[in-house]
């Protein structure tokens, strides 16, 4: 075994032991966990520094590699300490969202730093093609090491299971002890990275294979984008945000187009497509700023109407980067015409550095999205109604230390209202529900009492809520159908009607069959809602049937004209 392999094996063993200690301290809620700044910093250093070392250490660069990883560990440790500070005091508020965003940010930063260190600081090259090659290599190397570790555990599980069949449970007990599993997993990941680093030709072959796949998909995606923009003037921009997914879909389209473009065109001079296909792709990239601007407009509408939240902050940041990328590619096409694919590095390299810098800044005191969201949420309430009109549950759950301190300040200024009572106030319920309501058919507005009833029923759900009116009847002057979205089928469908006291009541409806989302939306929009009242009421939405709960179900295909008579 070479000296480099011995060093990496030692680092892997130390990393496994460190992860074991941190895991047990978390389970025992020791003093270390009660200091989130220290705890998060240790987790970050233990996970990122060894990973960088696995990817960067060679037999001839020990000193440079250790300097680079030490500086990186120091910077990431300071960032992590601040994130831990934002999560303190310990156990006073939920931190899941903060942790998830931080993990995503630090993963991207670590990946970018590994590529920069390898290409610019260790190999002494500024070539964009080299940077791109190491990006693909590191991605496949890490993925391969994780696959290697997963297969190892499959073998160990088989090993333990076979011996368990003959009454020997020693291995089943041993393999799933954390003091065994964690160090072994760390060593397996390190070994997997070392193995895959030694087969660069295979990694490069996988990269070429992936590139060829996307090479055939990029023209199709480009044609879809161009056709979409051509069709948009005939349908109207307002249709983009009719179902609440317009901004997200536009952002995904922009991101996929940029990713496919970078995967296919890797700065080489060889022609990949015929000239006419390259023109379609160039036209798509020239139109990409329009798609990005539409996404930015949709994001601005949400922020202007409902204020900043953590999700909207990251959405706006993503939109900004996609817009700058698309403008940069448009500039390349205008400046270099057919040869623009050879100059992608002029845009990609500065943007890669910018992305890394922004992610570090956003996770530092220089730009705190939680403070921005807190000020925006407080400003959403009317003057004089800040307490009743603010969503304190959101502030408590998602805004970390700034939200915690603001809740304490409000509670101190209002001694008649305890902190627990304050957290029960969830702000303007009508606003929160209306943010995800989609009115179908001829509905243009909903009565406030109806909105309140729907809010009580569906407040806990973040999904879209579709509402349509049932044709008035003599027995029921005005009633509504409300369906809460859940992917392919509806999670819950309810009947909303007015009782004798004038209040809206919500009654669950039982589905007689699985309902396709696209079909039911179409039927609701067209107002194809009818009722038939016998002993129990059957509500028809196009060909779909619903009935009130606690009635014997009838299969969808059996609910026909004849079976309706049988229900009388």
SSE topology:
Layout: H1 3-28, H2 36-56, H3 62-86, H4 96-122, H5 128-165, H6 170-175, H7 178-197, H8 200-235, H9 246-264, H10 275-306, H11 310-336, H12 345-362, H13 369-380, H14 392-398, H15 400-413, H16 419-423, H17 429-434, E1 437-439, H18 448-458, E2 465-470, E3 479-486, E4 489-498, E5 504-511, H19 517-525, E6 529-533, E7 537-541, E8 544-548, H20 561-566
Parallel strand pairs: 1-2
Antiparallel strand pairs: 2-3, 3-4, 4-5, 5-8, 6-7, 7-8
Bin the helical content.
55-70%
State the secondary-structure class: alpha+beta
Shape label: globular
Uncertain segments: 428-432, 549-568
Sequence of secondary-structure elements: HHHHHHHHHHHHHHHHHEHEEEEHEEEH
Strand order of the largest sheet: 1-2-3-4-5-8-7-6
Number of strands: 8
Terminal residue distance: 84 Å
Count of individual helical segments? 20
Q: Please describe the biggest sheet, giving its number of strands, its sense, and whether it closes into a barrel.
A: 8 strands, mixed
Into which percentage range does the β-strand content fall? 5-15%
* Rg from Cα: 29 Å
Average pLDDT value? 80
């Amino acid at each position: 075994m070479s000296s480099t392999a011995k060093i990496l094996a030692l680092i892997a063993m130390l990393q496994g032991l460190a992860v074991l200690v941190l895991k047990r301290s978390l389970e025992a809620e020791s003093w270390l966990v009660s200091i989130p700044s220290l705890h998060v910093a240790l987790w970050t250093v233990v996970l990122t520094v060894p990973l960088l070392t696995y990817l960067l250490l060679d037999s001839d660069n020990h000193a440079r590699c250790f300097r680079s990883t030490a500086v990186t560990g120091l910077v990431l440790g300071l960032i992590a300490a601040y994130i831990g500070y934002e999560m303190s005091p310990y156990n006073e508020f939920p931190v899941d969202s903060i942790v998830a965003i931080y993990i995503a940010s630090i993963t991207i930063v670590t990946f970018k730093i590994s590529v920069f260190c390898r290409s610019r600081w260790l190999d002494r090259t500024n070539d964009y093609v080299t940077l791109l090659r190491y990006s693909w290599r590191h991605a496949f190397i890490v993925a391969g090491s994780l696959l290697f570790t997963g297969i190892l555990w499959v073998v160990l599980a088989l090993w333990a299971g076979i011996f368990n069949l003959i009454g020997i449970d020693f291995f089943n007990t041993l393999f799933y002890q954390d003091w065994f599993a964690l160090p072994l997993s760390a060593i397996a990941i390190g070994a997997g990275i070392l193995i895959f680093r030694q087969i660069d030709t295979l990694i490069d072959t996988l990269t070429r294979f992936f590139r060829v796949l996307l090479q055939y998909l990029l023209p199709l995606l480009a044609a879809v984008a161009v056709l979409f923009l051509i069709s948009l003037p005939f349908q109207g921009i307002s249709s983009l945000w009719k179902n609440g997914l317009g901004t997200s879909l536009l952002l995904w389209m922009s991101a996929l187009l940029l990713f496919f473009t970078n995967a296919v065109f890797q700065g080489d001079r060889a022609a990949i497509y015929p000239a006419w296909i390259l023109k379609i792709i160039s036209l798509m990239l020239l139109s990409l700023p329009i798609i990005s601007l539409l996404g930015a407009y949709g994001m601005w509408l949400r922020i202007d109407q409902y204020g900043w939240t953590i999700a909207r902050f990251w959405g706006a940041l993503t939109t900004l980067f996609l817009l700058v990328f698309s403008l940069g590619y448009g500039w390349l096409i205008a400046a270099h015409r057919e040869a623009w694919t050879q100059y992608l590095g002029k845009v990609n390299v500065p943007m890669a550095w910018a992305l890394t810098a922004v992610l570090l800044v956003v996770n530092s005191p220089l730009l705190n999205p939680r403070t921005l969201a807190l000020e925006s949420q407080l400003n959403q309430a009317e003057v004089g109604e800040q307490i009743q009109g603010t969503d304190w549950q959101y502030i408590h759950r998602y805004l970390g230390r700034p939200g915690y301190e603001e809740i304490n300040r409000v509670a101190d200024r209002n001694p008649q209202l305890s902190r627990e009572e304050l957290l029960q106030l969830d702000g303007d319920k009508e606003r929160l529900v209306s943010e995800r309501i989609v009115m179908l058919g001829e509905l243009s507005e909903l009565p406030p009492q109806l909105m309140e009833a729907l809010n009580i029923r569906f407040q806990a759900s973040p999904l879209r809520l579709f509402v349509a009116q049932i044709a008035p009847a003599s027995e029921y002057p005005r009633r509504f159908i409300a369906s809460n979205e859940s992917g392919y089928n509806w999670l819950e469908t309810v009947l909303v009607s007015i009782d004798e006291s004038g209040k809206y009541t919500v009654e669950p409806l039982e589905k007689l069959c699985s309902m396709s989302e696209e079909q039911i939306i179409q039927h609701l929009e067209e107002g194809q809602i009818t009722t038939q009242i016998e002993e129990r009421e059957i509500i028809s939405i196009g060909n779909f049937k619903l009935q009130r709960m606690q009635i014997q179900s009838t299969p969808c295909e059996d609910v026909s004209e004849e079976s309706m008579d049988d229900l009388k």
